[in-house]
Amino acid sequence: QVPLVESGGGLVQAGGSLTLSCVGSGSTLSMIDIGWYRQVPGMVREWVATIGSSGVINYVGFAMGRFTVSRDNAKNTVYLQMNDLKPEDTAVYYCRPMTGGPWGQGTQVTVSS
């Protein structure tokens, strides 16, 4: 199974925005429930949001109102738009099918205060 590929991370000041992308080369993402996760070094990886194949979207509490998940089926890409970023959002962000599979390399998001 080929891991999904994350991109779009970077360094941003608090209050700024970033949009992460998740591309599937071996999977049709529109047919899969895709989850976004993040991990701070030394901490447990945590779930951030999910976009289902049916279009249903769910967010963890801290993401509500600031993060938006969307999907472009033509590009086989899932996005995580993050607004009003805070230093505590600093982490490596990953995407993966909710059914499991290998983790990709993730994309680093660093928010400076």
Q: What spatial order of strands do you see in the largest sheet?
A: 2-10-9-4-5-6
Q: What is the N-to-C succession of helices and strands? A: EEEEEEEEEE
Rg result: 13 Å
Beta fraction: over 45%
Helix-strand makeup class: mainly beta
> What is the number of helical segments per DSSP (H or I, 4+ residues)?
0
Low-confidence spans: pLDDT under 50, at least 5 residues?
none
- Quaternary state reads single chain
Distance between the termini: 39 Å
Overall average pLDDT: 95
For the secondary structure, the number of strands is: 10
Shape: globular
Task: Describe the largest sheet.
Answer: 6 strands, mixed
What share of residues is helical? under 10%
Question: How would you summarize the topology of this molecule?
Answer:
Elements: E1 5-7, E2 10-13, E3 18-23, E4 34-39, E5 46-51, E6 57-59, E7 67-72, E8 77-82, E9 91-97, E10 107-112
Parallel strand pairs: 2-10
Antiparallel strand pairs: 1-3, 3-8, 4-5, 4-9, 5-6, 7-8, 9-10
